[in-house]
Amino acid sequence: MILEHGKVGVLHYVLRDASGKTLESSHGGGPMPYLHGFGNLVPGLERALAGQERGAHLEVALAPADAYGERKGPGPQRVRRRDLPKELDIVPGRPFRTTGSDGRDVILWILKAEGAWVTLDVDHPLAGQALTFDVDVLFVREATEEELQHGHAHGVFGEHSHG
Ligand SMILES: [Zn+2]
Q1: How many whole angstroms from 148 Cα to the centroid of ligand 1?
Q2: Domain 7-68+127-150, CATH among 3.40.640.10, 3.30.70.790, 3.40.50.300, 3.10.50.40
Q3: Closest of 14, 123, 91, 104 to residue 60, by C-alpha
Q4: N or C: at which end does the chain have fewer Cβ atoms within 10 angstroms?
Q5: Ligand 1 mean position to 150 CA, how many Å?
Q6: How far does the centroid of ligand 1 lie from the alpha carbon of residue 126, in Å?
Q7: Is pTM, for the whole model, over 0.70?
Q8: What end-to-end distance do the CA atoms of the chain give, in Å?
């Protein structure tokens, strides 16, 4: 079985920046399942995985445009925590959706939180960076109906359910 639209790939991966520094790794934690063809991975990585099967090992070097995109915004901005929505969970590394000054929806990434201040950016924390993914395909399986409806994988074996 190969990785194509509607299949779930279960991966171990190491993500490195241009200097070779490890930014993220699935080793030590569990492997990462993803549903192929639904944009759940950065575009260059999903393209490289298409047609791969169990046991494949890939080293994928990506330009920023094929990873988290070029930087578009003005750079990190500091705002007061009290000016953010009360219900917002302030977790560095997480995005949230809000309404911009022009009335349009905008995604903001939380970079850090210090005391009364929170640093936000319109760009993903890894935007503008060339990245390398070192990937092992542990196995490939059929997606469940529910996974296809939701557009994402529900655990390594499709075992998780949620509302
Ligand atoms: Zn779901």
Answers
A1: 9
A2: 3.10.50.40
A3: 14
A4: C
A5: 5
A6: 25
A7: yes
A8: 29
